[in-house]
Structure formats: structure tokens, C-alpha cells
Amino acid sequence: MNRLFVYFGGLFYPFCRAPLLLTTVRRTASDRQLVRPKPESFLRSIPRRTFWFAGQVFKFGCILYFVNAYVVDFFVCIGPSMEPTIQSHDIVITEHFTQRFRVLKRGDLVVARSPVSPTIFICKRIVGKAGDLVHDEHRNVVKVPRGYVWLEGDNAQDSIDSRRYGPVPEALIRSKLCLRLWPFARFGRIPDYRRPAQPGEDLVDTDAVDLE
After folding, report:
1. 134 is in which domain, residue-wise?
2. What is the pLDDT of residues 17-44, one digit of tens each?
3. What pLDDT, in 10s, does the model give residues 118-131?
4. For residues 11 and 176, which has the higher predicted lDDT (pLDDT)?
5. Tally of domains within the chain
6. Which of 124, 162, 175, 176 is catalytic?
7. End-to-end CA separation in angstroms for the chain
8. Do residues 87 and 65 share a domain?
9. Pair 78, 158 in one domain
10. 124 has catalytic annotation
11. What counts of helices (H) and strands (E) characterise the chain?
12. Same-domain check for residues 20 and 82
């Protein structure tokens, strides 16, 4: 008899429990209605939420600016002047440490502000530094003054560079190319390369990297 009682108790237990569950649900819903914020209190919280969101955006902007200005940059290279080393629409990463600590050397690929259009960034290679003798586009010998560098594109036939507008102040150099992100097929470090001196030039240098 006890077993039968237990059996029926287990069978009807959920049904006996249903009114209690319904009551609990109703009570919970009533409680939620009681604690639901009033429209005016919600409106008062809008300025606080707005200020919080603006603060988060401001902090993110500060971090992004710091990284962009002092650590690394991302650039999309447009144009044929650096082919075949850099193809048009390649995405590259540049770093600021080399430029800030003044350890740039001949052969480095750099991003600099154009001396003729300061709002435009150019991607060129350092061919000459202070004291070097180089040729301009008219084959005249030019001596690079102190505090300047001589920038050229690897694609000499299709590059507007120092051969046309002369030496570029080192202060215009923003960063040094270090890594290619895109396309993935050519992902990896971008090596430096020293252009051989042409007849009449003098590129005395011991710190550049020569490629086979």
C-alpha cells in the first residue's frame, strides 16, 4: 500500500505542483512590475550612460592614437614606384622606434611625408644620408646635407622621388616598413636593400644590408 501511495504520489506530483508554480510565476511577475523603473528615472539615467559611453570612446581613442603615433602604423601602398619590392595595394606594418632613436640606415624602406605635398605619405627607400654624393634626374651630383636623406623608389623608371625634389629632411620620416600583411601569399618581413652606387656617386656606408 505504501508502494502504491508512493507510485501515485510520484505520478500526480507534477500536477499537484502546478498551482504552486503558477502562483510563484504570478508573484514573481508582480514583484517585477513593482520594481520596474519609472520612465522619469530611466530618462534621468540617459545622461549618465551617455557620459560613460563617451568616456569609453575617449579612452579607446587615446590608446589608438598612442599606438599609431609611437608604436606601429598600418599603410596601404598605392602606385608602382616601389615595384617589385612593394606592389600596389600591399598592406604593410611600419614601426616608429627606428626613426625615433635615429638609427635609420641606407637601404631602409620608410614612410615619410611628401616634401611637396605634406598631406600625402610616400613610401621610398633611403639611398643616401648626410655627406653622400648622389645623382639627381639630370645626372647632376648632389651632396646630401646634414639632417637630410636621399629617398628613391625601387622602380626608377616610374618614381617621383629625391631625384626630382632633392634631399628630404629626416624630420619628415614617419616610420620604417617592417612587415607585409597583405596579400597573405607574400606575408612576412620586408628586407632592406642597398642600391649600388652609380658612376660618380659616393655612398660610403658600413651599416646597410646587402641582398644576394
Report:
1. 72-189
2. 444 344 444 444 444 455 555 555 656 6
3. 899 999 999 999 98
4. 176
5. 3
6. 124
7. 97
8. no
9. yes
10. yes
11. 4, 10
12. no
